[in-house]
Design brief:
Heat Shock Protein 90; five-stranded parallel sheet; 10 strands; Helix Hairpins; five-stranded mixed sheet
Length: 359
């Protein structure tokens, strides 16, 4: 299926030359002399790629791109600027809004074709990943939601039909089980929603804030709060040993906290009931290494290799779907860090976050 491209430029000759080059190479091309006209065209059909000049009468290219980024339907269209302007401020402003690439006038036909091909291949790869994600979610959601839902329905039915036959202690135990499974169900739903939206949410966050605004200050406060919450959930008090020197990290605090919760939950979930969990931190040049070590199930080399969108890391068991590391990897990679997994099955697992230090 041929790819469609919308070209926007107020210079007729340049606009037609670009159209001719692209059409000659198998692309379907529409053109518009102004951003206003292009925006009206987008209401009728959405192209696979937009190529736009920056300096145009009326609505300029930067304003047009900002308009698209505030539209949920149009915000993910790949966008290439063409312009004679090449100052650092122009580049920074365009990239901050969400431009995918630049072509500076004058450019060669091959430069145009290479840039277009590169951006479309990137989109195809992302679409493939998202399709895999949708398929895996469709296969996994029924099982993952049914598992905690079954005891909720079963116990509540039992209580309603035979309430007078149970002692107070039995009712308390069943109520506790219903509450625990309801929280478990809520947690799984939240993870599915987070995984489904994380790519868009992170990109939206980046487009609205400068990179220097992404910092986490109170490292130990965050860790201690997460440890308290997860210890209560798993009934594992005083089993976490923290050795984390304070430092400021170059990562958004909200998403950093999500990573910590996922790794702490995994550590509790897959380690022995009386085993200590060690959390250590140390600086390595421009990065800070925060590691979580536990003794338990562990991961095989193949499972570590396959940490990707929604690939399972463990056999399907009562513990869950295994999407925690996928979520963590997506977040850490977005903030220019790295997820490092080292494991010996049934012996020990060490999962580390390599995060840039904010100087």
């Amino acid at each position: 299926m041929e790819k469609s491209i919308l070209v926007i430029d107020d210079e007729f000759d340049l606009r037609e030359n670009i159209k001719e080059i692209l059409m000659h190479n198998g692309y379907k091309v529409d053109t518009a002399p102004t951003a206003y006209q292009a925006y009206e065209m987008l209401k009728e059909s959405i192209p696979d790629l937009i190529i736009s000049d920056i300096m145009m009468p009326g609505l300029d290219g930067l304003e047009f791109l900002a308009l698209l980024k505030n539209d949920k339907i149009l915000s993910n269209i790949p966008f290439i600027f063409i312009s004679a302007r090449s100052t650092y401020d122009d580049l920074r402003k365009g990239m901050k809004i969400g431009a995918d690439d630049y072509l500076f006038k004058p450019f060669k036909a091959q430069d145009l074709l290479d840039t277009v091909k590169s951006k479309l291949e990137k989109v195809n790869k992302m679409n493939s990943i998202l399709n895999d994600l949708k398929e895996n979610i469709a296969l996994s959601v029924p099982h993952e939601l049914r598992t905690p839902l079954t005891p909720i329905i079963g116990l509540s039915d039992l209580m309603m039909d035979n309430l007078d036959d149970f002692t107070k202690e039995e009712i308390e135990r069943m109520s506790y089980s219903i509450n625990a499974n309801a929280k478990r169900l809520h947690n799984r739903i939240e993870k599915f929603v987070l995984l489904a939206n994380i790519h868009t949410d992170l990109n939206t966050l980046t487009s609205k804030k400068s990179t220097r605004d992404f910092v986490t200050y109170d490292l130990n406060s965050i860790l201690k709060q997460v440890v308290i919450e997860e210890s209560q959930i798993f009934n594992r008090k005083d089993q976490v040993v923290l050795n984390v020197p304070e430092i400021t990290l170059k990562i958004d605090e909200y998403y950093f906290t999500i990573c910590i919760k996922e790794l702490m939950e995994n550590a509790f979930k897959f380690s022995g009931p009386m085993k200590k969990i060690l959390v250590n931190g140390e600086s390595h040049g421009k990065y800070y290494i925060l590691s979580f070590t536990n003794n338990g199930k562990g991961l095989t080399p193949e499972q570590i290799k396959n940490i990707n969108l929604f690939n399972k890391h463990y056999e399907r068991t009562k513990e869950g779907s295994g999407i925690g590391l996928t979520i963590v990897k997506k977040i850490i990679n977005h903030f220019k860090g790295e997820l490092i997994v080292e494991s010996k099955p049934n012996i020990q697992t060490n999962i580390s976050l390599k995060i840039p230090i904010a100087y």
